[in-house]
Amino acid sequence: MSAVEILCSECGAEAFLNREPVYEGFTKTGERLSCSACGFVFASEEAVPFKEAAAAPQIFTEADRSKKVRVFDEGEQLMFCRYCASYVVNPFMQFCSHHKKEVQATDSCSDFRPSDPEESLKKPVF
Ligand SMILES: [Zn+2]
Question: Can you give the residue ranges of every domain in the chain?
């Protein structure tokens, strides 16, 4: 079985979903779903913060997909720190010059300021 990636709602780490069968006597009664990074146990399948929940390609038709790409271009994803003018990257860390703290390329915040598109193209893609 392939590993399922999650973005843990508890520790915030990109981790894997641990799936362990739960037995009552010798009868399998369910599964225990937990975070491989912090061990947090999710209440149910619905509570698991699957990393690619919105991007399962097989459930979208070709038409849906091109629509998705347009939305991507127009906004949402462009709020990521990676596209922000305050985003500074060096070999050791990604840094927000506005909040003076370490950030991830995929973080977003309300102080987002779009960077020069030419500039953002020079930034490495993670
Ligand atoms: Zn976790």
Answer: 5-54, 59-122
